[in-house]
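Inverse folding, one chain.
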């Protein structure tokens, strides 16, 4: 760490001596044996400003306590059919690891439709995946590699990105805000692949609005990005949408197993079974109601609201320029 970071860390740690028992317990679930590294993430997120990092950290602990985040992996999963609907419409999964041992998270930005179940289930699912990553995947990777691994890489597939995405802007912004405030600096690099013109048009105007720290994490790759991604991960760890389609099996069951978004993929099977096991353990101690988990959506940060508004304007420009049939009539971007 830089010298200023060392000094900032000392100040930060001194402010934590007054944590109450609830906050200490949830902090243990957060850091998984690496408290210093966890605090560094909050310092980075606030550019080394100790008072701001401390407030962000305390707010995060309070959010975890109020929303019982420590028990979210013991929340019995929603019914299988509904859970499959979530997985089929909120496209996200883990395809493998980089050569350095970082988990590879794939996100189908363009083809995610949402709207199949209540928004609260999409938020719940996202938080559960975050917690499973932080409490199971990353600690296991750390143990296997004999060194601390606390971040992941994300491959964002823009295939199918269209104007109808604006319908889900409020939900997506809320999920992003939850990540920014409570899971800061967990992504090492964002790889953008299969970017259509509408993304390129938006990126040109959105990029200058992002913090430099965030801009440096984003890499827009050509096409499916296979050539560049193979520099940081093996072929087996590539998300399915980055692999050579001619080499993928045509058998439906096997295709689903290779598709890291699918509930039939090994990652989602392990996550689902883990939550069922944790729920059984918790229910043997104290009853948990099926619908007891609910996280109030946070208010949008003003800077994020500006970015969202910019995206909406650029989408409208693309619509006007290309005369797209996917009209914005009736689309209201709420919460911005």
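Residues assigned per position:
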């Amino acid at each position: 760490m830089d010298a200023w970071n060392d000094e900032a860390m000392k100040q930060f740690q001194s402010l934590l001596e007054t944590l109450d028992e609830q906050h200490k317990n949830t902090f243990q679930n957060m850091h998984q044996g690496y408290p210093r590294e966890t605090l560094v993430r909050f310092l980075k997120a606030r550019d080394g400003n100790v008072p701001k990092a401390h407030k962000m950290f305390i707010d995060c602990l309070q959010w975890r306590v109020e929303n019982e985040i420590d028990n979210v992996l013991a929340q019995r999963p929603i019914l299988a059919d509904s859970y499959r609907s979530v997985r089929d419409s909120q496209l996200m999964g883990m395809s493998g690891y980089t050569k350095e041992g970082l988990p590879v998270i794939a996100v189908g930005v363009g083809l995610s439709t949402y709207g199949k179940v209540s928004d609260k289930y999409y938020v719940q699912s996202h938080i559960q995946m975050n917690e499973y990553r932080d409490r199971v995947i990353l600690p296991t990777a750390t143990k296997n590699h004999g060194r601390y691994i606390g971040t992941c890489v994300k491959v964002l597939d823009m295939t199918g990105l269209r104007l109808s995405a604006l319908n889900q802007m409020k939900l997506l912004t809320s999920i992003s805000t939850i990540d920014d405030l409570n899971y800061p600096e967990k992504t090492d690099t964002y790889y953008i692949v299969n970017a259509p013109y509408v993304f390129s048009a938006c990126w040109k105007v959105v990029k200058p609005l992002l913090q430099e720290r965030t801009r440096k994490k984003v890499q827009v790759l050509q096409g499916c990005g296979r050539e560049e991604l193979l520099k940081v991960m093996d072929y087996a760890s590539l998300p399915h949408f980055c692999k050579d389609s001619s080499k993928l099996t045509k058998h439906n069951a096997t295709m689903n197993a290779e598709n890291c978004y699918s509930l039939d993929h090994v990652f989602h099977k392990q996550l689902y079974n883990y939550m069922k096991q944790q729920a059984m353990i918790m229910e043997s101690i104290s009853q948990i109601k099926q619908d007891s988990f609910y996280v109030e959506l946070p208010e949008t940060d003003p800077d994020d609201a500006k970015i969202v508004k910019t995206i909406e304007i650029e989408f409208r420009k693309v619509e006007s320029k290309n005369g797209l049939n996917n009209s914005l009539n009736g689309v209201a971007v709420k919460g911005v």
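The first helix runs from residue 3 to 15. The chain is about 50% helix and 10% strand.
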